[in-house]
TrEMBL record:
It comes from Bosea psychrotolerans. Residues 1-36 form the signal peptide. InterPro entries: Solute-binding_3/MltF_N, TAT_signal. Keywords: Signal. SUPFAM superfamilies: Periplasmic binding protein-like II. This is Amino acid ABC transporter substrate-binding protein (PAAT family). Pfam families: SBP_bac_3. CDD domains: PBP2_SMa0082_like (cd01072).
Length: 280
């Protein structure tokens, strides 16, 4: 009985050692891929030889997909320029609204470029860059409709989604007598301006991009800016060097016109200016 127990203990020990060695070998053989994005500086990313960027694919034109179902949009184009500046290949990693912070904090990606609004709550978890884009709410109308200031709204019929951000913003600035029509959602308001039921619409730059792409004959343009949400790249709190490098990169592509070209490509208009960094 004693000999059997000894043999059993030895067998268990050998199996345990074997498992430990196997796990160690597997860890050593893991490639520097999407599960090893712990690089905290530009130099570490260059040494690894790949730049892992989390992007949305369900929020065009900021983050969508192309004909081959590859990530495409404003954010992806910014990531392409960023990888080029770093001098390494780019890997775009699709993320969603709920999983984008977990992907960052568990080292699946180096950075989020994912239409991420800079808020006080999110700043508790991540480190933000300076704004590189904005989700902008406008009063939109055809080029031949004269709207230069809030007082001009009383001369046109304007529609918006009921209880939306744009509804609140328009209601706050419109003069008495304005014909504001409230619809159940953005899609219904969009159809109203397409069909000529209204002359102007309160909507975001994503709606502007859709109108300019699908209905260029309407010549829709921004008339009044109602509100801007500053979007920043997001990093792990410890990745200060990468965030600082990214701020210089953003300033450079804003100054040389590359960011404006991206905005024109996806939204149909040049980038006027980036919003300031929010303070909380």
């Amino acid at each position: 009985m004693t000999m059997l127990k000894t043999i059993s203990r030895r067998a268990i020990f050998r199996r345990a050692m074997g498992l430990t060695l196997a796990l160690g070998l597997a860890a050593a053989l893991l490639p520097f891929g999407r599960n090893a994005a712990a690089a905290a500086t530009p130099d570490e990313i260059k040494a690894r030889g790949k730049f892992l960027v989390g992007v949305l694919t369900d929020y065009p034109p900021f983050g969508g997909t192309d004909a081959n179902q590859k990530p495409a949009g404003y954010d992806a184009d910014v990531a392409v320029l960023m990888a080029k500046a770093l001098g390494v290949p780019l890997e775009l990693v699709p993320v969603t609204g709920p999983n984008r912070i977990p992907y960052l904090l568990t080292n699946k990606i180096d950075v989020l470029i994912a239409t991420f609004g800079i808020t006080a709550e999110r700043q508790k978890q991540v480190l933000f860059s300076n704004p590189y884009s904005a989700l902008t709410i406008y009063v939109l109308a055809p080029k031949n409709v004269v709207i230069q200031k809030p007082e001009d709204l009383k001369n046109v019929s304007i529609g918006t989604a009921r209880a939306s951000t744009q509804d609140t913003a328009i209601s706050a600035i419109m003069p008495p007598g304005t014909q504001l029509k409230r619809y159940d959602d953005d899609a219904t308001a969009l159809q109203a301006i397409i069909s000529g039921q209204i002359q102007a619409i309160g909507a975001s730059n994503t709606i502007l991009a859709q109108l300019n792409k699908d209905y260029p004959q309407l010549n829709i343009e921004p008339k009044i800016t109602l509100k801007e949400q500053a979007n920043g790249m997001a990093f792990r709190k410890a990745d200060t060097a990468l965030a600082e490098w990214s701020n210089k990169f953003i300033a450079e592509i804003a100054a040389n016109g590359q960011l404006s070209e991206i905005n024109k490509r996806w939204f149909g208009i040049p980038l006027s200016s980036l919003p300031p960094m929010p303070t909380f």
